[in-house]
């Protein structure tokens, strides 16, 4: 009941005209910046951090929240229309959203994503209000073996589900893990795969990898085949979801948040793992399995709802523990410290107006995001009417700008081109791109948790499976690996025996 009263007070703060203006401005800026390939919410918040020096803390964080959600949706917009994710959480949206766009259903994919973000954000924020203390307590008890198990589950799930060949999926994952090794060893300080370059000592930024594999790889692939294919504009299609689309998406919209929120709330969580797991879940449960990979709307709705709910979950550990689980949360933590505020268990007591005003503004931001982006879905979809030479030239330009903005180093552009060529080669030989991105994102974290778990257990491998949670997750991993063999065995058993003679 105290949470409800505090939330009502928070709405009193968030619904003041000036804070409504900051929320609307944040959503608009976030969406606009998110639509640019390679510039995700973390970069948007970081770039706009100096702008908020003159604002009071409450207004600044309300604006940050709007930027966060707006940039997440903007990232999925380019992911769907151009196969160019604006940030890592939008990677999964490209798998089904881009084939939908190419089939003339880009506006429907964007509408499914917009409603998914709204549903995920609303349910996630309600869970934030109700479950924050409980989830924070559970997150404290999760150790290194549990994190490692979750990451192994993500690796296996993404390589098993995507593409026609597990071997190709594994090869793609290994490419990503190798790129993730570039830089300094976090424990010994030794350089790995830097080729003597000091600029590579910090590793290759995930934004550069995602933009290189998706945007540059896609642009080069299209350029290589431009003369062989017709250059006709892709039809935009009708702007709204039909009855059949709604029938197929309402369950994924409701399932996604309950997958996304817990992963956002635990340290080392974020939106990457739950979006993949949501996609896997929808593929397993769908009655239209044959459409997956060709433009299944469920594959957009579920992961987008999971991503939005994960953003709300991220705020749980950031506000209650002072522990950022994503790049955006890390930037917001720096912003808190800029104002002399330290997030943690006492934050709700010391700064109730700020915290509950921020949480209430999440609800307001969701409504503004839906109101802004549903009418704009056909407008964004008209990007596909731009002639492809101009369109992909623009993608290359913005991709280069986004990559250069990451570190301001000319070497980043060289790395971007090299990774783009790798992306071109992967498309040429049928390797799925997504496992490589997952390897880059989660590989370094998985290595760190593995070494930490082994240190705790004095090098004993039993230290990797010494908790009920990790044992349960590895059982799920074993089931995922064994399922195709079991299904094949059942199919062979059911197959009628050939007639004798």
TrEMBL record:
Q: Which keywords belong to this entry? A: Membrane, Transmembrane, Transmembrane helix
Extract the Pfam families matched here: TctA
Query: Where are its TM segments located?
Result: 20-49, 61-82, 118-140, 147-164, 170-188, 200-223, 311-333, 354-377, 389-422, 429-446, 466-486
Question: Organism's domain of life?
Answer: Bacteria
* Residue intervals of the DUF112 domain: 20-437
| The protein's name in its UniProt record | Tripartite tricarboxylate transporter TctA
């Amino acid at each position: 009941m105290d949470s409800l009263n505090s939330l009502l007070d928070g709405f009193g703060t968030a619904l003041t005209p000036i804070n409504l203006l900051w929320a609307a401005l944040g959503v608009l800026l976030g969406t606009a910046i998110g639509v640019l390939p390679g510039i995700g919410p973390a970069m948007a918040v970081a770039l706009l951090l100096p702008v908020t020096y003159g604002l009071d803390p409450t207004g600044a964080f309300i604006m940050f929240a709007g930027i966060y959600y707006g940039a997440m949706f903007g990232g999925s917009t380019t992911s769907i229309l151009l196969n160019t994710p604006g940030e890592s959480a939008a990677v999964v949206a490209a798998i089904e959203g881009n084939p939908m766009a190419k089939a003339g259903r880009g506006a429907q994919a964007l509408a499914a994503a917009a409603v998914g973000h709204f549903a995920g954000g609303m349910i996630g924020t309600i869970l934030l209000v109700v479950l924050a203390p409980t989830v924070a307590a559970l997150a404290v008890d999760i150790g290194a073996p549990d994190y490692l198990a979750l990451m192994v589950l993500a690796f296996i799930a993404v390589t098993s589900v995507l593409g026609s060949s597990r071997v190709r999926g594994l090869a793609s994952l290994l490419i990503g893990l190798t790129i993730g090794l570039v830089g300094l060893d976090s424990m010994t300080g030794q350089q790995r795969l830097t080729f003597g370059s000091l600029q590579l000592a910090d590793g290759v930024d995930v934004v550069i990898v995602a933009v290189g594999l998706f945007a540059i790889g896609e642009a080069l692939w299209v350029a290589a085949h431009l003369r062989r294919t017709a250059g006709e504009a892709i039809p935009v299609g009708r702007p709204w979801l039909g009855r059949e689309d709604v029938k197929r998406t309402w369950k994924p919209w409701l399932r996604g948040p309950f997958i996304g929120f817990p992963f956002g709330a635990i340290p080392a969580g974020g939106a990457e793992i739950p979006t993949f797991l949501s996609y896997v879940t929808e593929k397993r449960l769908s009655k239209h399995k044959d459409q997956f990979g060709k433009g299944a709307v469920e594959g957009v709705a579920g992961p987008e709802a999971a991503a939005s709910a994960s953003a709300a979950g991220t705020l749980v550990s950031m506000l209650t523990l002072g522990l950022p689980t994503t790049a955006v949360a890390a930037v917001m933590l720096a912003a808190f410290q800029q104002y002399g505020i330290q997030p943690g268990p006492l934050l709700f007591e010391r700064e109730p107006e700020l915290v509950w005003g921020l949480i209430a503004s999440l609800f307001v931001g969701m409504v503004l995001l839906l109101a802004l982006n549903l009418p704009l879905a056909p407008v964004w979809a008209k990007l596909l009417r731009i002639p492809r030479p101009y369109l992909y030239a623009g993608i290359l330009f913005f991709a280069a700008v986004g990559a250069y903005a990451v570190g301001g180093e000319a070497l980043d552009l060289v790395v971007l081109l090299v990774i783009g060529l790798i992306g071109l080669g992967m498309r040429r030989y049928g390797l799925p791109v997504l496992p490589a991105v997952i390897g880059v994102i989660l590989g370094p974290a998985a290595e760190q948790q593995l070494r930490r778990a082994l240190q705790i257990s004095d090098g004993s491998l039993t230290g990797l499976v010494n908790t009920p949670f990790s044992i349960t997750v590895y059982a799920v991993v074993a089931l995922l690996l064994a399922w195709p063999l079991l299904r094949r065995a059942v199919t062979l058993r059911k197959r009628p025996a050939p007639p004798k003679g």
